[in-house]
Amino acid sequence: MMWDNSPASLDNEGFLVVRRARFVWLWYWVGMLVVGCASNASISPTPRNATLTLLGWTLTPPTATPRSRLIRTPTPRVTFPFMPTPLPLTVGPPDCYETPVGSLWCFGIIHNTLLVPLESIIVRVYLVDQDGHLLAEAEAACARSVLMPNEQAPYGVMFLSAPASMVGSLAALVQAVEAVNSSITSLTIGDVQFTKHDPQDADSPISVLSKLINPANSSISDIMVVVTMFDHQGRVTGFRQVRLQDHPALASGESLLFDVTAIPQVFPVNTVQVSAEGRRN
Questions:
Q1: Smallest Cα–Cα separation from 173: which of 81, 105, 87?
Q2: Distance from C-alpha of 224 to C-alpha of 242, rounded to nearest angstrom
Q3: According to a count of CB atoms within 10 Å of the terminal CB, is the N or C end of the chain lower?
Q4: What integer is the mean pLDDT of 110-117?
Q5: Using an 8 Å Cβ cutoff, are 111 and 275 in contact?
Q6: What are residue 213's DSSP bridge partners?
Q7: Structural domains of the chain, count
Q8: Is the dihedral of CA 73, 76, 80, 85 positive or negative?
């Protein structure tokens, strides 16, 4: 390309006229200058409000604290008075039932796992809240006077009212003494049966029939029978003690049919257990 270097000339209007080549050159540099300025410009983004994170609004459902089981054992306030350490026995946890009048019955089983007979067996029952704090306590004696090795018998205690915040119960052995030279002995039990008084009534009392046999070499008098009732889950629902004070002594090897009515705290009764003891003459 050839550039026109001729001098500028004046037009008829008296203005300075730039030759075409110079005019084009001038606009070329102006365009470059504009493009360069534009490339260094920054565009501010449209301001936006801060968005709350989902984490702040996602609430984890709280885990409900079980109220139907004991959370922990009673606090150190639940202690025994100073007394000789009782012999180790298996004491089952109590099953408690509120009565229609507002009182509370608690039942359990004591099992003699030792090799010696035991007497004066006492259990203490504790009612606790969900934090294991003591609400009430009461002592219960074993339903049998003497518990022979490998025998078991119920215990029961009644509280006048059930604490509103009670969620559980505990049982602990307070006393058990070896029965030395005791005249109390156990009778053999056979043919245990039970039926409802009214088969059509779900809450009908039951009639328990069994045979008592004297296995001792001497006669036995002052016989006491204990009938224990259980539900389908093996929980103790009640028991009854009956003394045959007016019955003559049972001779060695002699048997006696026994029939007693029993009413559990809750129905129905699934199984019954019968045990008996008497005094050797």
A1: 87
A2: 6
A3: N
A4: 95
A5: no
A6: 188, 255
A7: 2
A8: positive
150: part of which helix (H) or strand (E)? none
Q: How far is CA 261 from the centre of its chain?
A: 33
DSSP state of 271: E
The domain of 219 spans 184-280
Residue 245 lies in a domain: yes
Mean pLDDT of 268-276: 97
Query: Hunting for tokens 């390309």 — which residue is that?
Result: 1
Q: Are 223 and 214 in contact (CB under 8 A)?
A: no
Backbone angles phi, psi at 208, to 5 degrees: -110, 125
* Residue type, position 192, single letter: V
**Cβ count near 272 (within 10 Å):** 18
**Closest to 220 in 3D by CA, of 145, 148, 144, 281:** 281
First to last CA, the chain: 149
Report the C-alpha dihedral over residues 113, 115, 117, 122, rounded to 10 degrees. Answer: -30
Of the residues 136, 155, 178, which one is the last residue of a structural domain? Answer: 178
Q: Which residues contact 92 (CB under 8 A, 6 or more apart)?
A: 108, 109, 110, 111, 171, 236
How far apart (Å, rounded) are the C-alpha atoms in residues 200 and 207?
15
Q: Which of 111, 107, 173 is nearest to 147 (CA)?
A: 111
On whether the CB atoms of residues 65 and 91 are closer than 8 A, the answer is no
Question: What mean pLDDT is predicted for residues 206-212?
Answer: 97
Residue 73 vs residue 113, higher pLDDT: 113
Q: What's the whole-model pTM score?
A: 0.69
